[in-house]
Amino acid sequence: MVQAALADPLRESPYPGLLGDSTQPPDTILTPGNAGLFAALHNKDMSNAFDTGPARFAPAEPGLRWNHTFAGLGPDFYTELKPSPLPSPYWVGRNRALARELGLQSQWLESDEALAALTGNQLLPGARPLASVYSGHQFGVWAGQLGDGRAILLGELQTGQGPQELQLKGAGKTPYSRMGDGRAVLRSSIREFLCSEAMHGLGIATTRALCVTGSDAAVRRETIETAAVVARTAPSFIRFGHFEHFSFSDQPAQLKALADHVIDRFYPHCRQAHQPYAALLQAVSERTAHMVAAWQAVGFCHGVMNTDNMSILGLTIDYGPFQFLDAFDPAHVCNHSDEQGRYAYNKQPNMAYWNLFCLGQALLPLIDQQDDALAALESFKTVFPAALQARMAAKLGLTDEQDGDRELVESTFRLLAANKVDYTIFWRRLCGFTAQSGHEPVRELFFDSQSFNTWALQYSERIASVEPAQRHDLMLKNNPKFVLRNHLGEKAIQAAKLKDFSQVATLLDLLETPFDEHPGHESLAGFPPDWASSIAISCSS
To answer: What pLDDT shows up at residue 8?
Structure first.
């Protein structure tokens, strides 16, 4: 069985001190015989189930050209419905750079019509709104049917950057909302808006955010908050959970249609493989490996890596309780709801593999030989450590590969962890390190100066053969000055609650180009205040 063969994923951790212990795959192989676990939604015509009045069409022409390829899969995959309007919406943040990439007419994003359409109060001409159904494992437990509980897909835009789906997150209740209200709140919407663009600026595969709009409509979470909507884009929002849904509810025809759709649209080279569906699993495994390697290198914690939050395209998706590390702690848990520490920073690679294992199980009905699935999953174990090593070498300014580089990376992690050094500031200051001059700006980050001196000697010897200007340039391009720290996001959120959105705009500008110096904004690249450690980010949004 696949389970037995993969009982110890990542048996040989590429960085044991960084990654921690391996995590076992799912305890139970779910089969089509478990279909009774699903409260399967038979997709009747529910287009009016959540109707809040006649939808209006925006009179201004945004310049959009639509396709609806996901809708072409058929009604088993979604429910068509309209977004639910919000009263008196207002702009919180707009991403004009992304608007240009999407081919939107520049004046349209400034209009009242755009505000209404991107809040869900009007239908864009040509849009075909729907919510998709999927399932998934949440915190390692089979959760059964889930779905777009508050996200509504408007369709697929034809852009100069290729096809891009446009989705409204927080646009109202859907048949998949379960006990939820279908809304998003201002704080989490601002965090997603800023972080998706921060990740894009860092060169990490991600969904994008076109805008965030707000409303004073009340939303109950732990307290009463106000509503918001994020308009976000991606080539596709299909998740591992989409495959799990159709596999484990015994719908082989729909599972095959979904896999064929993904292959034909996004992985056409897999069609030529001896076993196309195993090739798909391998391609997804490799993309996921590159994504997680990028997370680890920049010190990003996702916080809730459930299978329904894993993109089939290897994109960072669903920004909830995320965090960029402040003081380096490999075992840091950023999600206040994650009481067991399942998604700690050092467990993210193993959790990604665990999720890929679940995807492999879902695809087994389409893969003739389980050995093919095993081989496809095995690629993660080679791609991830190589990708992480390459990124860490660039952060260290190493322009060639030598024996001992892996140990240098590992010793760097150990040193940072032992001294609880600020992760982003260390790497940015290291860009100015030279073997000839003093290392004081870097040294002062460490309370154990002797350990730093020992490491600095090792590093100096390694970079002696690297041309200084080339190393400096490489490091500046791989060690950002600005990341979206929790306290920066919190300040912007608190100001936004008072209708001051200037900090959102400032952060967006910095995070779009995080490797630049941005004179005058040094305070936003400084150490976090003491109160930052008390910020609690949970799954509620």
So the answer is: 42
**Domain final position from 476, 508, 527:** 476
Please report the DSSP string for 358-379 in residue order: HHHHHHGGG-S-HHHHHHHHHH
Task: Please tell me whether residue 469 adopts helix, strand or coil conformation.
Answer: helix
Residue 283 lies in a domain: no
3-state SS, 124-182, equals CCCCCCEEECCEEEECCEEEEECCCCCEEEEEEECCCCCCEEEEEECCCCCCCCCCCCC
DSSP three-state, residue 296: helix
Q: Which residues of 523-541 are buried (b: 16+ CB within 10 A; e: fewer)?
A: ebbeebeeeeeeeebbbeb
Residue 185 lies in a domain: yes
Strand partners, 227: 185
Token digits of residue 13: 């951790």
Q: How far apart are CA 319 and CA 189, in angstroms?
A: 9
- The answer to the question of residue 278 being in a domain is no
Q: Rg (Cα) of the chain, in Å, rounded?
A: 23
Count up the domains in the chain and report the number: 2
Range of the domain at 448: 397-476
Q: Is 516 a catalytic residue?
A: no
Catalytic-labelled residue, pool 308, 318, 326, 422:
308
b/e map 465-488, b = 16+ CB within 10 Å: ebeeeebbebbbebbbbbbbbbbb
d(CA 237, CA 329): 32
3-state secondary structure 483-518: CCCHHHHHHHHHHHHCCCCHHHHHHHHHHHCCCCCC
Q: Is residue 381 part of a domain?
A: no
Q: At 92, is the secondary structure helix, strand, or coil?
A: strand
Per run of 10 residues, the mean pLDDT along the chain (length 541 residues) is: 40 40 40 29 33 41 84 97 97 96 89 96 95 97 95 94 95 93 96 98 98 97 94 98 97 98 97 97 98 98 97 96 97 94 97 98 94 96 98 97 96 98 98 84 95 95 94 98 97 98 98 98 96 81 55
